[in-house]
Design brief:
Order of helices and strands: HHHHHHHHHHHHHEHEEEEHHHHHHHHHH
Largest sheet: 3 strands, mixed
Number of strands: 5
Structural class: mainly alpha
Radius of gyration: 23 Å
Helix content: 55-70%
Strand order of the largest sheet: 2-4-3
Distance between the termini: 16 Å
Oligomer: single chain
């Protein structure tokens, strides 16, 4: 079995060459992608967010699929690459043909967020770094203009996001456009890594760029409010056809949505029963809610302020890396640095960003804390650190980045499938319980709360978007956002700000949220099938090494690669 610490190498094949060439094209078409990988060049530029830009991506995809059609795999790595690229690129074209890419707008994963968020990943150590930032700030208007052009083109074909999402994005953009918003603050607080102030000329250039970016977001607000909002439909549900395609995009596998919905209902019931058993351990006779109240009242489980939150996250993350490296997972020294960060935004959400290609920028775990929230409980978030860090996203993503001698650039850096990635992170949470890291009943209750949330959103997401009948234990009639919100309120133990964020995310990003739990289900099915096939020879650590060395692929591809 391949061990990641040995960093195996292989001779590049014709299929690798096509994959690398396609990745190079993606980097040319999307300079922010290069920034996210920590690669030099095009630091001040943005992709073309206009319809012409999307067509350029589609043309490159078509051409690559044509080249792959003429090639035969030379080894098992090639077989996986070919299977994965045909599945991913084929879906990209299917999605392109629907036209919905032009209309993409939601509270978490659309151009309005991406254009701003890239600044979080840009180096800030030197004057040259800040010159790049100033250049990109100056190019925000062009990116926004291209985005508006696409939204206008989508609207001309009656493709417009739901009114709820447009209103939320208007609010987000208004914050960025304000005089004390992100861009102004970012420029004002600019310093060198040494602590020295920037030159007066560079400070002025940054201020001008920030004002330019701020004005561009103000123009986006005007367009959204005056032109797009009046055309936006009130209905949030996207329907079965669009949902099925979205589900395939996020899973890399076509699942029976009705069966998956029924499984989600049963899985939610099972997790709640498990929570009740853990509640009994915390306080005999207590309900789940009463047990959580006991945990929340425990001073040893409380954190006050984001500095305390950041320090606690870092300490727990460092311990997990130290404990698991070599014992349960192959973690090379270069991968063991993981930084825990408080995000510069207040939108809600916890997320991971991968290391640069040379690991000079480490993997990072980000917490976007909603405005006004400064109290946190460790019992509810211990499993989140494992989800975002090790053995979750950091181990998964950093392993793929590390495997430069085994995987082509597309496999390492360009292919990301939510059901694979998020499914692995949930799988990792359960694994940490099995390894004894959640033996404390409070920490286990937190893990179960996270699993319950993920099961609940399988039910909510499919139920609301397909307008299915509610299960008897949760209500009557057809799912709607309104009764769905009450359902989420019951099953997601989170702050009001985070609950609103999650609710709106599910409505505006169909198929993505269920990919976590469905992905976990498929990961566990593949592991169990492999264990059954190997019998007494099954080696869990070796299975994980082989699986992670594949990089992120669709779940059908994962099944083929690991089971044949």
């Amino acid at each position: 079995m391949t061990n990641v610490t040995t960093k195996p190498t292989r001779t590049q094949t014709a299929i690798d060459a096509v994959a690398d060439a396609y990745t190079a094209t993606l980097l040319e078409l999307d300079p922010s992608f290069a920034t996210s990988l920590g690669l030099p060049g095009h630091e001040t530029e943005y992709r073309d967010y206009s319809p012409a830009g999307f067509e350029a991506f589609a043309a490159a995809t078509r051409s690559t699929l044509e080249e792959l059609a003429a090639l035969e795999p030379t080894d098992d790595v090639d077989k996986v690459t070919l299977h994965a690229m045909r599945e991913r690129l084929g879906l990209d074209l299917e999605l392109h043909e629907t036209g919905w890419q032009l209309a993409e707008l939601n509270n978490i994963a659309s151009a309005s967020q991406d254009i701003r968020a890239i600044f979080d990943l840009m180096p800030t150590a030197t004057a040259t770094d800040w010159e790049h930032i100033a250049g990109r700030l100056a190019n925000v208007p062009g990116a926004i203009e291209g985005y508006i052009s696409s939204l206008r083109s989508g609207a001309a074909n009656s493709l417009v996001a739901a009114r709820r999402q447009v209103e939320i994005v208007i609010e987000q953009c208004q914050r960025h456009a304000s005089e004390d918003g992100f861009f102004t603050t970012f420029a004002k607080e600019a310093t060198l890594e040494s602590g020295e102030a920037l030159t007066g000329e560079l400070t002025e250039t940054l201020a001008t760029g920030a004002e330019t970016a701020r004005a561009a977001y103000a123009a986006l607000v005007d367009f959204l409010a005056d032109e797009l909002l009046p055309q936006a439909p009130l209905k949030d549900a996207v329907g079965a056809e669009r949902y099925a395609l979205a589900s395939r995009v996020f899973l890399g596998s076509a699942v029976d949505l009705q069966e998956t919905y029924a499984w989600g209902v049963a899985e939610l019931d099972r997790i709640i029963a498990e929570q009740r058993a853990v509640a009994e351990q915390i306080a005999p006779g207590a309900s789940i809610e009463e047990a959580k109240a006991v945990l929340n009242a425990d001073p040893a489980r409380q954190l006050k302020g984001t500095d305390a939150l950041k320090s606690w996250m870092q300490e727990l993350s460092d311990k997990a890396v130290a404990d698991l490296a070599g014992e349960q997972f192959d973690i090379p020294e270069i991968m063991r640095r993981l930084e825990c960060m408080i995000a510069p935004t207040q939108d809600g959400g916890i997320y991971y960003s991968g290391p640069s290609d040379d690991f000079s920028r480490p993997g990072r775990m980000w917490w976007s804390v909603p405005e006004g929230e400064d109290s946190f409980t460790t019992w509810s978030e211990t499993t989140t650190v494992y989800h975002e860090g090790v053995p979750g996203h950091h181990l998964q993503v950093a392993t793929a980045v590390y495997q430069s001698g085994l995987l082509n650039n597309w496999r390492r850096n360009a292919c990301w499938v939510s059901g694979h990635g998020e499914g692995w992170a949930l799988y990792a949470e359960r694994l940490m319980d099995q390894l004894g890291y959640l033996s404390d009943p409070g920490d286990k209750m937190g893990m179960l709360d996270g699993q319950r949330m993920r099961a609940a959103r399988v039910v909510f997401d499919i139920g609301v978007h397909l307008e299915l009948d509610m299960p008897a234990q949760w209500g009557t009639g057809t799912w709607t956002p309104e009764n769905g919100f009450e359902f989420l309120k019951t099953n997601l133990d989170t702050s009001p700000g985070q609950l609103d964020f999650e609710f709106n995310r599910y409505l505006g990003w169909p198929g993505q949220a269920p990919s976590y739990k469905i992905g976990q289900r498929l990961w566990e099915e593949i592991r169990d099938a492999r264990a059954a096939a190997d019998g007494t020879d099954f080696d869990l650590k070796a299975f994980h090494t082989q699986a992670l060395n594949l990089g992120s692929v669709g779940l059908d591809t994962l099944r083929v690669a690991l089971l044949g």
